[in-house]
Write a structure and sequence with these properties.
Elements: E1 2-7, H1 20-27, E2 32-37, E3 50-51, E4 61-62, H2 64-74, E5 80-89, H3 92-99, E6 103-107, H4 116-121, E7 125-128, H5 137-149, H6 159-164, E8 182-183, E9 186-187, H7 197-215, H8 217-226
Parallel strand pairs: 1-2, 1-6, 5-6, 5-7
Antiparallel strand pairs: 3-4, 8-9
Helix pairs in contact: 3-5, 7-8
Bound molecules: S-adenosyl-L-homocysteine.
Length: about 230
């Protein structure tokens, strides 16, 4: 998978993606990050990338001419996404969809955002990581890419851990325990020591349901609707 990143802060990449699972995937070439500095496409002597908004108001807007030149220089194929609080919220389902793509391009905003005409011209889609406002698209993109890269083929060692994880079956994950059996008087649930795999799976599913119902009534309602017979 090839990922083009358009940013004013190229030094933020690969950032934490250089570590652990994603770090290994990048080092092994399972995913290629092509990071481009938008400022390289500024044409005036101050290398300016932003200007004041028409209609007035606070903040600055990223200029369409500079963004257009940057996109032209990197874009070959695939979807272009702008990281934006106005976008659809990124979920595990989106991560799976992105992980199947050959090439994608992401545009990280700064200031108040980008000139709307760039979105129109390049048919750019918008994607958000949640209902809050960050100061830039970079932390959002790094977070999203972490979720995508671990789903690429042969990146996670144990693929069953992927199937059982939170959100994969519409539920949050069950609790985990490791050694020792007794930690400061707190014992591991007996069922997990029984060796009875079917019973353990049933217990885990029950726990998953309980936790989802208690913590995320929104997900629980969706789960019930999807599992109606
Ligand atoms: N004025 C904009 C916010 C600008 S924040 C608004 O009210 O919608 C500056 C940049 O941070 C944005 O251009 C975007 O790229 C990024 N950003 C902020 N919040 C984000 C979020 N929740 N998800 C993804 N990107 C976000």
């Amino acid at each position: 998978m090839k990922i083009n990143v358009l940013t004013l802060y190229p030094e933020m990449f690969p950032g934490f993606l250089g570590y652990s699972l994603a770090g290994k995937a990048l080092a092994e070439g399972k995913c290629e990050l092509n990071v481009v500095n938008i400022r390289d496409f500024a044409t005036d002597k101050y290398k300016s990338v932003d200007d004041t908004p028409f209609g007035g108001g606070a903040g600055m807007v990223m200029k369409p001419s500079v963004l257009d030149a940057a996109i032209k220089a990197v874009y070959k194929k695939g979807d272009i996404y702008y990281l934006s609080p106005r976008g659809m919220v990124f979920t595990q389902k989106t991560a799976h969809t992105f992980a199947k793509e050959e090439e994608m391009t992401f545009l990280c905003g700064r200031f108040e955002g980008i000139d709307e005409r760039i979105i129109e011209k390049w048919n750019i889609k918008e994607i958000s990581i949640g209902d809050f406002v960050l100061s830039g698209g970079e932390p959002a993109l790094l977070t999203m890419l972490d979720a995508v890269i671990r789903l690429l083929p042969n990146v996670m060692g144990n693929t069953s851990s992927e199937i059982e994880e939170s959100f994969e079956n519409g539920l949050l994950e069950y609790p985990h325990y490791t050694k020792p059996q007794n930690f400061e008087g707190m014992k591991v649930p007996d069922i997990l020591l029984s060796g009875h795999h079917q019973k353990i799976n049933e217990w885990r599913l029950e726990q998953s349901k309980k936790i989802t119902q208690e913590r995320r009534p929104d997900l629980w309602t969706k789960y019930l609707n999807q599992n109606k017979n």
